[in-house]
Amino acid sequence: MSGHSANHYFKVYAILVVLFLVSYVVPEMTHYKPLVLASAFGIAVVKAWMVAAYFMHLKHERTFVGYILITALAFMFLLYVALMPDIQRKEGHHWRSNIVVEVPEDHHGGHGAPHHDVHAEPVHEAKH
Amino acid sequence: MDSPIATSRSKTGISTGKLAVYWLIASEIVIFGGLLVCYLLLRMRNPEWGIFASNTNTHLGALNTFVLLTSSFCVVLAHHAAENKETDKAFKYLWITILGGLIFLVVKTIEYTTKFSHGIFITTNPFWGFYFIATGIHGLHVIAGMICMAIVSFQAKAGRNLGRVELAGLYWHFVDIVWIFLFPLLYIAK
Fold this sequence. Notes:
The complex is a heterodimer of chains A (about 130) and B (about 190).
Chain A: H1 6-29, H2 33-55, H3 63-88, E1 91-92, E2 95-97, E3 120-122
Helix pairs in contact in A: 1-2
Chain B: E1 8-9, E2 14-15, H1 16-45, H2 49-53, H3 58-83, H4 87-117, H5 126-157, H6 163-188
Antiparallel strand pairs in B: 1-2
């Protein structure tokens, strides 16, 4: 039993809607990227936490459930850390990435098949 | 002859059904997490993808976010009603949730057809590849959730397996959480 009233869930829902409206309105009002990204992703994390904690009742759930979910999230983090050195860097020892996505002139994204080559080129010149 | 069915696990203190749903959610975290991590890495590597992202319809994405939040609220009310043995109420809220899923899919279809009419497809470039794969897989999960809830709703109406209302709800909340992250990733970060 969750032991909460319908009124309690409505309050949580109302907060979620307000947070959603803020994340929707901020990008409409400003183009200052750090603020837009911070509000969008910050609010997304808070909303996800609220849904998990109050709607899924994770706050009152057995610890074992937390272990299951944290294990899955840890694998996600592991994947990020494992791939980051290769994908984030544009060059390294004897290699240079040539991932290229051409941006069409009309900024539309739909015309002109863009070239996308994910292979890394070997670099023969000596690195210092 | 009825065979014995384990309905709870003594080691964890969690019902078998709920434990199964949480394992399912854990595997889904890895599926969606893997996809989103790859997107995030490539997106940070290629800031010019923002130009493609500016062609996603933020208003429709926001509408879908609101629809899923509302449906999550409805399914938790269905769970609340099922706990109180209010079977008709649980049935009603489950079907409002299914309606929310249907609205979500209609909006998604509008988005997809608009993209297709502009010559944007899954193979257009890696950004649109991620867009269609992530939203497409998510859409399939919405459909799966709607089917599960439809089956559970009729059992709940008959007063059978009321515990399954919570299980269907847990899955639906997870689908909502995935969309909570897809919205800023694909529609806001431009």
